[in-house]
Amino acid sequence: MTAHPSPGHHPSSSTGAPPSPTVDVHAHVLLPEVEALVEGRPGLAGARALDARRNGPAALAVNGPMVRGRLPRLTDAAVRLAAMDAQGVDVQLVSPSPSHYHYWADEETAEKLYRLAGEATAAHCAADPDRLRGLGLVPLQHPDLMVPALDHALARGLSGVEISSHAPGRELSDPAYEPFWTRAEETGAVLFLHPFGCTLDERLDRWYLSNTVGQPTENAVALSHLIFSGVLDRHPGLKLIAAHGGGYLPTHIGRSDHAWSTRPDAGAGCAHPPSSYLKRLYFDSLVHDPHVLRELVRVAGADRVLLGSDFPFDMGTEDPVGALRAARLSEADFHAVRGGNAAALLRKD
């Protein structure tokens, strides 16, 4: 992966080392083809009703105009690339909007969905393969389809797949997912953990708590399932990026360590203190607070944090490099997070 000349292009150090690209690992694409596929299918109306209950009417009234105003950046690759230039971003790792998960879908629909999502995302990224890398989807509600879905994404030239924090009735610690973790580890696929919807439901249906509190909560719960169940012991080579800086878990990991060391039920499933597993995961930088970002770098390691913007949604940042610079990291750590870590992670053998 080489740097593209853009306003955000920086040398990797002041010593004349070769420049590294600025890489944003948290950027989305909207796929109208997917929504056309599921329209009218049994289960869609119920899923939309649940989403409405979880978000509340005030949030839904804002969401529609917000998304419509961002449609060109979400669907038109040329508009995306121009926006990247303005932000100083050389490369984006583009994942489908989480609204495309549709974990209510039956097996036949789910197979059509992951194929269409992978093909449409690959087509979007084909506009500039040097600057746009893509992720596909896998149906968490149908574990038997997940390995074929991952293979389909990789065969389309995508870097991996995006997953949510859970599926109905299944946590990420579910043993049924073991073949998927095994295949992801074998292939070196990138897994992007991005929640959609919070099971606290109507408790968060005002003031956009469904997102501001719900997303970090879901990240923390999902990562805790992966850690405490031993998934990361069994699959130490997983390349898993947690969106939103991993939510609440990294800044409160001491409580997990205390439980692991004090209670036999908490410590039964994983071999090491929970904090040690943060250094086996990757996290995006989208935490909206420079002090929190510094703490994330401290607990996970500067080599485990990647630039993320949530492009182009309103809960993201329009200036991801500026947000990173505000954390006042060392020069080496700044450039590692800005793009060096992601460039190494996405590099093809």
Search tags:
349 residues; alpha/beta; TIM Barrel; 17 helices; globular; ACMSD; Metal_Hydrolase; lyase; Amidohydrolase family protein
Give an account of the 3D structure.
The chain has a single domain (23-346), classed as Alpha-Beta Barrel (TIM Barrel), CATH 3.20.20. The chain has helices at residues 32-38, 44-55, 57-69, 71-75, 77-87, 107-125, 143-155, 178-187, 209-212, 214-228, 231-234, 253-262, 264-267, 274-277, 290-300, 320-325, 331-346, and strands at residues 23-29, 91-96, 132-137, 160-163, 166-167, 170-171, 190-193, 239-242, 282-284, 305-306. α7 (143-155) links the parallel β3 (132-137) and β4. The chain is built from 17 helices and 10 strands. α1 (32-38) runs antiparallel to α6, α6 packs parallel to α7 and α7 runs parallel beside α8 (178-187). 47% of the residues lie in helices and 11% in strands. The chain is of the alpha/beta class and 349 residues long. The strands form 2 sheets. The protein has an 8-stranded parallel beta sheet. The protein has a two-stranded antiparallel sheet with strand order 5-6. Residues 5-15 have low confidence and may be disordered. This is Amidohydrolase family protein. Keywords: Lyase.
SSE arrangement:
Blueprint: E1 23-29, H1 32-38, H2 44-55, H3 57-69, H4 71-75, H5 77-87, E2 91-96, H6 107-125, E3 132-137, H7 143-155, E4 160-163, E5 166-167, E6 170-171, H8 178-187, E7 190-193, H9 209-212, H10 214-228, H11 231-234, E8 239-242, H12 253-262, H13 264-267, H14 274-277, E9 282-284, H15 290-300, E10 305-306, H16 320-325, H17 331-346
Parallel strand pairs: 1-2, 2-3, 3-4, 4-7, 7-8, 8-9, 9-10
Antiparallel strand pairs: 5-6
Helix pairs in contact: 1-6, 6-7, 7-8
